[in-house]
Amino acid sequence: MGDAASNALKKGSLEMLVLALLEDGPRHGYEISKLIEERSERTLRYHVASLYPTLYGLERRGLVQGAWGVAKSGRKRRCYRLTRGGRRVLAEQRSRWRAFSQAIERIVKVRYA
Amino acid sequence: MRDFSLIVRRKLGRLPLEPARAHEITAELAHQLEDRFQESIDRGLPEARALADALEQFGDWEKVRRAILCAELGENIMWPQPSAVPRRASWAALAIVALLCLAPSFRQALRAVPDAWRFPRPPLSDSTLRSVAERGLREHDASPLAFAALHTRDLTEASRYAEQAVAMDPKLTWIAVRFANPVDNNPAISNVWMERLKAWAPDNSVPHLFAAELLYARGSADGSLDDAAALRLANSTAWGEKMQAAFAAPRFDNYMQRRFELDRSVLHRIQGTETGALVWYSSGLGFINLSQVKAYAGLITRTFGPQAEQAGRTAEAAELYWSVARFGEHMSNGASWVGENSIAAGLEASAYASLAGLATRAGKKDEAAALTLLSHAAERNGSQSLADWREASGGRWAAADRSAMVAWFASGLLLLSAIACLAWAALIGFRSEQRVLGGWAGGAALGLSYAPIFLLASSALMYTTMLPYLRSAQEFKTGRELQYALGAFWYSYWSGAGFPYEWRVYGQQMLWPVVFSILILIAGMAALRWVAQRRPPRGQAAE
Known about the structure:
The complex is a heterodimer. By secondary structure, chain A is an alpha+beta fold. Chain A has helices at residues 3-21, 29-39, 48-60, 84-112, and strands at 27-28, 64-70, 76-82. A 3-stranded antiparallel beta sheet of chain A has the order 1-3-2. In chain A, α1 (3-21) crosses α3. Chain A is globular, with a radius of gyration of 16 Å. The mean pLDDT of chain A is 84. Chain B has helices spanning 4-12, 19-42, 47-56, 61-73, 87-100, 104-116, 126-138, 142-151, 155-168, 177-180, 187-200, 205-219, 227-236, 239-248, 256-271, 276-281, 290-310, 314-334, 338-361, 365-428, 439-448, 451-466, 479-495, 501-534. The longest helix of chain B has 64 residues, at 365-428. The model of chain B is unreliable at 76-83, 430-435 and 537-543 (pLDDT under 50). Chain A binds chain B through residues 28-30, 33, 47-50, 52-54, 56-57, 60-63, 65, 75-78, 83-85, 88, and chain B through 24-25, 27-29, 31-32, 35-36, 57-60, 63-64, 67-68, 70-72, 537-543.
């Protein structure tokens, strides 16, 4: 896949990834970036220029809520938790993503069958 | 221990957000940097490498900054604003304008700005003149009362001030010239003052000229009379007698100099040494009707004199011609402007020529030659002074017109720039030096960011153009001197000369409604912004 297409996919999906990772509980920014990296087996890596603005945008829209607290490491970190609105948006995005990926999968399978 | 917050602040620069929010973001990014750094150290990397690795995750810091501001302030923020004037340059421009305001002459130029953008009208309103008169009464000072009498537009009120001024100081009776011209005034009032002036200054020809003028005005529809019409007027009315009395008087004084000195002294007390109002007031009043003078002199030199000669009454003819020559001389001595000088010289030239003819016919060749020389000299003086004046004033007037045109334009630009500066200041707010604006406010701020520069440019242009004309009234000894030096500029400036009439009328009529509309618009925009800032962010209600 070309870099541009890859970047577009990454950029478009970051919001959903963040919301999905917060579904299990509050997390801080570094933790989110590490989890994306680990769970994607290093396929997805986001620069700070993408991750934090996304978090701030979600917070501004009321989908997540940030608050200072003590992380598992014992350090003071700003942790984000999903709001009710965020859960609803995540459910919608997840549903759309599922339909989208299944559609793509069907086409790709037919093309290369 | 490394200060990661300091690293982030240096890399990111100052965020134009509320201080608490900016601090929160910096701290959060510093933690991100610290966590990655610590992880690298834990993996056994040397510190320098660990730091480079931690910084690498941020990529381009400018992109980070821009993305954060976009997320915080909305999608449509105007950041960066490549074509906007740097904020410091705008403040510097405003500071220079403020410094210019320290110069009294610049303040004088600023005070004159509104005069250029309204239809020409007297500098002091009747209510101001009323308070000037009240001040005169309170301080028992006749000068302010006389000033108010000369310039109050309401004739009855002006006449009352004149009565009070003359009662306090009879030497001010000359202010009767304000009312003595019956053509511009109520005849009932003017007759009273005309008689008072005649009684106060019986040797002055001017009250007689005013008395004759009403009859002359009635007799000449277009303001001039040929010899036959003048003769009819003289035979059918008392015009001839009144003109004869004027020509026989030994002095010509229209009190322009006294009026100039009074105006200058009272205006100095009211508004300092500014010249604008003095230029306005030192013109207009007390001018005599030159056409009437020419008509009567022509009647004598071309009709009455030759008739007397033909009838053999040469002594009478000579006396008639001499009356014209003497009047010309008196008028020349008391002339308040070049037109009077020119007409006076013309009277003298024609009278001496008639006298020379009379002497020639009487065989007095030497006397005739001397009179002819006098006639030529008077003619030369009259035409020369007029030519000199035209030549000198032509260049001066052209320059004054050009300056007035530029100053007029600059003053309009200055007004609009000043309003735009207010709008700019209201939009960016004074609280945050680098506030970033979103949407329409950002677009407007981008355009308005040029306002201070325009304000400085228009101020400098107006000031440099007007500076030669911002002289102190104390520099001028006579109203004539003042008019020659400054009159052309100020009249052009007030009337917007040089610009097409439609532009002028449109500009003068529309400027103030436009100014008020813009001010209302600014107030509305500020109110909208205030409301928007206090509205909770979108989606928060979902919580």
